Amino acid sequence: MEDINVVLGKMAVDEAEEVVDKLGQGGMLSIEPKIIDTTKGETIPERPHVHVSEPILEEVREEELD
């Protein structure tokens, strides 16, 4: 993948997008949906923080002992 990025990085953006699209259509390259394109001003959304409280952990430990 690094080699592909090097080659695409040397191309004009429009040309690189066309190549990636053709590679995808040909089944040679799979691009995940929801890719963030920072070259177009898109930003990475913050992930919500999940908090696990101690009582839940204690309940699991007690169940393991039974």
- What percent of residues are in strands? under 5%
| Rounded mean pLDDT score | 76
What would the principal axes of the Cα set say about the shape? extended
Rg computed from alpha carbons, rounded to a whole number of angstroms:
22 Å
How would you characterize the overall build of this protein?
This protein has 66 residues and is mainly alpha-helical. It has a domain at 1-43. It is 50% helix and 0% strand. The chain has helices at residues 2-9, 13-25, 54-65. The N and C termini lie far apart (50 Å).
Concise overview:
The chain has helices spanning 2-9, 13-25, 54-65. The protein is 50% helix and 0% strand.
Spell out the blueprint of helices and strands.
Elements: H1 2-9, H2 13-25, H3 54-65
Question: What are its keywords?
Answer:
66 residues; extended; mainly alpha; 3 helices
